[in-house]
């Protein structure tokens, strides 16, 4: 199956107190953690940057099948990066069956999540165009969107959100047993919890 990935890493990282994509977790920069898992399931990945873009590019420049794109509207928030990444994918001319979209501060999403979502998409893609992982009833990331919806997503109103788009098109929740889908890293406290989570999984 031809699946692509989009990682959203354009924000200011204000609450974290440092540039989150470069924050080391599991002995590597956070954005690299996200890439290394995603690339096992995606033929190519677009990393959308904005703030501190040159640093971001340096972090990922030597990783095969990964490209970066600058979101000139990154100050407008995450959805501007979603649209930027989707537009770049469309402009590349490379058709895709589906695309994973994930914020760059979700480094704890494991391989099992991607595999499970692809399996559900393969079985139920004719029934639903969007799939969202859920842990204990709480929706998380990555979102998996049918490739046929990308044009609509790219042209969605700028004042909308990814949640608006998902709700408007309908989605299938995919229940998983891994809390990584709901564990993002916004603060130093989140980072410490992430380290504890990784250590617990290693036991």
CATH superfamily: Spore Coat Polysaccharide Biosynthesis Protein SpsA, Chain A
Strand content: 15-25%
| Rg, alpha carbons | 16 Å
Distance between the termini: 34 Å
Mean pLDDT: 93
Strands, count: 10
Oligomerization status of the protein chains: single chain
Number of helices: 7
Low-confidence stretches: none
Which term fits the overall shape? Answer: globular
- The SSE order reads EEEHEHEHEHEEEHHEH
Helix content: 25-40%
What is the CATH architecture term? Answer: Alpha-Beta Complex
Written overview of the protein:
With about 200 residues, the chain is α/β, with parallel strands linked by helices. It has one domain: Spore Coat Polysaccharide Biosynthesis Protein SpsA, Chain A, CATH 3.90.550.10. The protein contains seven helices and ten strands. The chain has helices at about 30-40, 55-60, 80-90, 110-125, 150-155, 160-170, 190-200, and strands spanning about 5-10, 25, 30, 45-50, 65-70, 100-105, 130-135, 140, 145, 170-175. The strands form two sheets. Strands 1, 4, 5, 6, 7, 8, 9 and 10 form an eight-stranded mixed beta sheet that branches. It has a two-stranded antiparallel ribbon with strand order 2-3. Helix 2 (about 55-60) links the parallel strand 4 and strand 5. The longest helix has 15 residues, at about 190-200. The protein starts with a strand and ends with a helix.
